[in-house]
Amino acid sequence: MRTASKLTSPHSLSRPSPASLLFSRCKSSLRRPASASPPSLYQMITEIVPINVRDTEQQATTSTQGVRQNVRQSNSTSQIIAGKALLKATDLEEISAAVHKVTEIIRSDNIQIPMEQRLKVLGIAFTPETVEMVLKRCFKVGSLAFRFFNWMKLQPGFRHTTETYNTMSYIAGEAGEFDLVEKLMEDMDADLCSKNIKTWTILISQYANVKKIGKALWTFEEMRKSGCKLDSGVYEAILRGLCSARKAELAFEFYKEMVLKKMKVDIKIYTMLMDCLSIAGDIVNASLVGEDMMKIAELPETEVLTIMLRSFCISGKVDEAWKLFEEMRVRNLSVDSNVYEALVKGFCRVGRIDEAMGIVDDMKHSLNAGNRIYGCLIDGFLRKGKAWKALELLHSMRELGCLPMVSSYTQVIQHLFRSDQYGKACEIYEEMLENGIEADIVATTAVVAGHVQHNNISEAWRVFNDMKRKGLVPTWKAYSVFIKELCKASNPNEAFKLLSEMSACKINPTDHIFRLVISSLKRNGQLEKAGMAEQQHRSFRFSHRESEQFYDLTEHQEVSVCSSDHNLVCREPPNVLDENDVEELCRILSSSANSDLLLQTLDRSTITFTPELVEAVLRRSQRHGSSALQFFSWVGKQPNYTHNTETYNMAIKIAGSGKDFKHMRTLYHEMRRRCCSIEPNTWTIMISQYGQAGLTEIALKTFKEMKSEGYQPNGDTFKYLIVYLCGKKGRKIEEAIKVFQEMLPSGYMPDKEMVDIFLSSLCESRKFSEARRAVNSLCKRGFQNQIAYSLLIKSLCRAGQVDEAIVLTDEFENLGCKVDQYIYASIVHALLRKGRLEAALEKLEDMKRAGISQSVHIKTSLIVHFFRKKHIEKALEIYKKMREEGCEPTVITYSALIRGFMNMGMFSDALNIFHRMKIKGPFPDFQTYSMFMTCLCKQGRSADAFKLIHDMLESQIIPSAVNFRTVYYGLNREGKQDLAHLVLKMKWSLKKQRMHSI
């Protein structure tokens, strides 16, 4: 048997079998600590990891821990000057705040004053360490990070360092901008910045990741020539790339160098190399790698043999795998279900299904074959075309003591659809759901495709929409498959509708998908829609390509805080827009406080205006409503320009959202005078603006006016009118019932959001029989029973009728419903609100017995309860357990923590949670800000609440009149009249910015 030194010998090897090769060695008695779950390549480059990109448990402990660690690693004693404050590098909290401020400016650079100008007026003297921290936080907005990087080059007295170049190079490489990476390397040399080991590792790993093997090898040699010491991280980077590209021979040569240099090899590298060698048919060297795993890495013999057997099965070398398995049994080594699964899967993949079944029968003597093993057999039967055997096994699995996996059902359903057994496929899908197995994205996509293939488009949409109602977010693949099948089935209109939805969800359709939809529309004579799709394609490529790679913080916040009428104004204009023009106009509107100055600036503009450009500018300038509406008026008078329905709708929405209802009506009448097409959407926007302000009486009159003028309300009109009639501000429940009764016969089906609000308001108004009748009506018209009754339970619980809700669950079996996680969450929450902890815990036990896991909502309810009872240790224990179990807290969870800490007088802890939300998400929404303000004012910290108003505005969230009033009264109570006066000035300034009539 070869030792480590013999492994590097170039002469040929001759081994009788992989099993004999390995078993000739003695089992290792000790295991060297090895990383079972190694970090990603970039995490291995420790100082380059973005502070808040990876979601590790260490990062979750505090919002500034990553920054502090980086500062501790730096020996810099530099200072940061921000305003009049002198911040020393050792003053971690202030440095973190400064870095956060700069990051916020960079990441929100989309509609305001240019980033460079905002940074300049900030007055910070940047150090390389600070710049590095900022770049790390801007990891996912690469283009903005590069703008900041270039801007720093121009600052007097500043020079980029190796560390800042390293970080920027990594960001560029991750975005696939390799021309930029090479340019950065040239600039690095020009700036006399030496390349360190991290620089080389980044370059090699980035090239290797995209299979630019020649470049990676050339860089490796350049690194060697430079005299930089090669470490295990560099070798692992090149090995990952070579194995991924199936360059087994080269990979083995680099591995031998690692062994000669006595470098530690990660277990995942061993496994990857063994897989690569096995696929290449190099069983001898794969066996040598296994030997080294036992000898050098000191891994247990059983673990190594299991990994090797799996590699042989993956590569189709099942005979070698079987020999290894037999020898393991002869030697009485532990053989677990993972070994059997690898064998069964391997034999099934090479078509030897009978032998695979024999292995399963053999397994039953010592182990239970679980659903994964049977899933492999089902896959094997389907591969061999024996669908009847797959179905037979699928139906008999319950008798065998296990339920099939959702993936097994999916494979069977897909096969049946392809075999033109539509009815049977649908039957299997329903059987899966009845067995309590929830369909995942893949299963749902398969069923949707099957329905379309058999021309049942309505059923496909029902399944697709049900998936979204259940909280599953359609993926790029799900949308693409649905669109392709619709085009194949000659339903281009439906495909175009889905394409628009996909684009609106910021999921980038590929060029192929766009071309497919466009060609289908043209074939069916839909030339107008084909033109719209082409325009959308050009616009999407221009505007959204970057967002495919980078995450935009500001945009996320806008989505989370926007009002419920967000979708009433049409989507982003499909025509090609010049983003520079849009940004320039937005800058003019946001910076022009004087009306005359604004008009003079616009008059000097050389921009060519189109309705699409105007709509985009209006959409992004809603906070500056007054300037936006002046711009709307000015541009309407320009030669060769005419407003269209979309620009008027947007202007009407801006006027209404600023509560300038007089001007909103003026715009509507102007629209009529100019014979611009008025649509139901126009009326819906006006109704929504009145409703949002609590003016529900006027909203109702507008609704009646709409119908009297011959306009038919659409689904959105009914929805938003009912939603606002049910709101606490201006509630008119009797009118809401009448509108609901009018909506259903009109053929419009309410969505889950509307039904939730409607039922809640009925129950809060103690109209329980009306709520029950509404649910019955919905179910008769096709609304899903489970969702309808779940929402009724939730509404009863909100109204404090928890006992009635529990009684209703007893009827669920007769109603064709089941008590699921969401229903338990509603009941537990209601019981805890009433202080009935024992009853709530009893329900949790019921859940446990039923095999239902606790949701984040239940855990949040428990946190709220224990904070209310002053049991802070229990509340924090639940929060800690949530994080450990991978249960991601929501905005509501963090808000509950903030409120709980504030009620306990723990201001710094509440502030830490709030800062963590702002840095790592989920980002604070309007409700979070409002709650925090109220708590701060109650605790005598109104000055801190005043800062939150500034914070809201910077986050593009508009404070309400109640927010201003709360802070104003709080400051006056604390004797801070000067600050209170500033609050009034800020409120008036904001109102002036938003209203045209002032």
Automatic annotation (TrEMBL):
Keyword terms, alphabetized: Repeat
Transmembrane segments: none
InterPro entries: PPR_rpt (IPR002885), TPR-like_helical_dom_sf (IPR011990)
Pfam family, any one: PPR_2
PPR repeat segments: 196-230, 231-265, 301-335, 336-366, 370-404, 405-439, 440-474, 475-509, 679-713, 714-750, 785-819, 820-854, 855-889, 890-924, 925-959
Domain of life the protein comes from: Eukaryota
Record Gene3D superfamilies: Tetratricopeptide repeat domain
Family affiliation: Belongs to the PPR family. P subfamily.
Protein's recorded name: Pentatricopeptide repeat-containing protein
Lineage of source species: Eukaryota, Viridiplantae, Streptophyta, Embryophyta, Tracheophyta
